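Action item from last week, closing it out:
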Amino acid sequence: MTANWVTTGLSAVVILVASVVHGIAGFGFAQVSMGMMPLFRSPSSASIIFTATAVVSNGRVWWSVRDAFDWRKWIVPVGGLVVGMPLGIYVFSEFDETQMRVAIGGVLVLAVIIVGATQQLDAVTDWIEARDYRPGKIVGATAGLLAGVFGGAVAVPGPPMIVYGAFMSASGFWSDEEMKATFTAFFGTLMLYRLGSLTYAGSVTTPLMIEAAIAIPMVFLGAWIEVYIFDHIPERIFQWVVLLLLTVNAIILLYTSVPEL
């Protein structure tokens, strides 16, 4: 194994933090993982380790809400994902390390804006509820396609699906559990698809999978820690703190990368 053990250990710590954040805030596994790991390792290797752990993380959460899962809600965005993922993988293969860091930073900023608007600002959710608009299958498939492009390129697929889910939830067409079940099934599928595609392309190596295997227990440790923190910090305050830190993280990525373009 040629991996640097300090880098491996730091990667495992990042996955632990990402798991805790996701469990409490309801978002952030991709944003934290892909925001922090490229600060000390190559973005491409970070994305592969994240992808493998994300399959497990989404599978764990999906299992807890599996009774609310409806494959008909899942299959609509997956239809777009099938097309979008290869496009994203192609973009991924064309990026150099600096370009990928810039792309990750840009998508992180977009994710913070969308999450903040749809989950934290009552004015936005009130506006969505007032419109009473339910995205149709074409919109759902388009959201899946864009998530596939984002996920394939920079392993941060959330923004398009968050917007789609915000309308479906605020309009009363999805319950909270149905949205969680649909999202975790979709993102788990996306990450499994991404891992398989990158393996086929030769980007997944044995040392990287060993590092991923070392990080996977952190997913479950994070789920245990979140229970303790959840009882001591108000959820809404924690979410705002996470968004602030993700914004700082994105600025650092952009600030350290843009001059190198």
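Closing note: The first helix runs from residue 5 to 25.
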